[in-house]
Amino acid sequence: MQINTRSRAIREALARVRKRIPVQDWHAISSFLTRISGEREWRAVGAWGYVDTLWAGLFPVLGRCFEAVPGGQIIFFLPLLRLYSRKAIVGVVAHELGHALRASKMGPEWHEHMQRRWQRVEHEANALASRWGFRSHIRAMRNERRRTLNPYLSSPEKKFLGRIHRRDQEQVCHHRQVRLLQHAAERQTRAKGEPTNLHSCQ
After folding, report:
1. pLDDT per residue over 92-139, tens digit each?
2. Alpha-carbon distance 10 to 89, whole Å?
3. Which of 74, 108, 123, 161 has an alpha carbon 20 to 30 Å from 58's alpha carbon atom?
């Protein structure tokens, strides 16, 4: 299992939760998960470009051709996760690892099964985290979600969408400029009668 995030809050929370999880449970979790990562940017989802309000989740792992491969991955979405206190972040981490433990026992169709029973699955993850000794952290997570996160998300989304749109437009413009430069170089090279492989390491 790879830890692909430099977030100090997440790494400290993972270390703290790891110490309390029973060895057998941790073995099942670490065998099931391929990686734990953090996303630093806001994301727009759906045809209308709504802001993704997810702060963390357990997701399938996809291969090069977008086929599902065994195991899962936990992704933390830092723009929203940063709204939580350190105590609540420990609760979020324990909650997601609880999901991973449950998923590890469901077989290849774990994601579909959890999607169909999402309310029960949420309660089970909280119960597992509480059993590991994180009851107060789960309570902090739920209270801060209601008092801090939900009001923040109910504010106008235009400022988020504007930020996402500007970022995406900058990326599109950058890729267009790169392609134009490549085409211009190829035309110039063809005019000289030289090879056109721009990716050569020579």
Report:
1. 999 999 999 999 999 888 999 999 998 999 999 999 999 999 999 999
2. 7
3. 161
Distances in Å between the alpha carbon of 150 and those of 108, 127, 175, 196? 33, 22, 36, 54
Is 201 domain-assigned?
Answer: no
The answer to whether the CB of 52 falls within 8 A of the CB of 18 is no
Same-domain status, 113 and 54: yes
CA of residue 13 relative to chain centroid, distance: 16
Percent of the chain past pLDDT 90, that is, above it, reads: 51
Cα distance between residue 53 and residue 42, in whole Å: 9
> Which of left, alpha, beta for 166 (phi over 0: left; psi -120 to 50: alpha)?
alpha
189 token code pair = 């090279």
CA distance 189 to 200: 13
| Domains identified in the chain, total number | 2
pLDDT of residue 200: 38
Judge if 170 and 138 occupy the same domain: no
Contact 126, 99 (CB under 8 A): no
Domain boundaries, position 187: 157-193
Examine residue 200 and state whether it is found in any structural domain, yes or no. no
Closest among 1, 33, 13, 151 to 92, alpha carbons compared: 13
pTM (whole model) above 0.90: no
Whether 105 and 173 share a structural domain:
no
Same domain, 40 and 52: yes
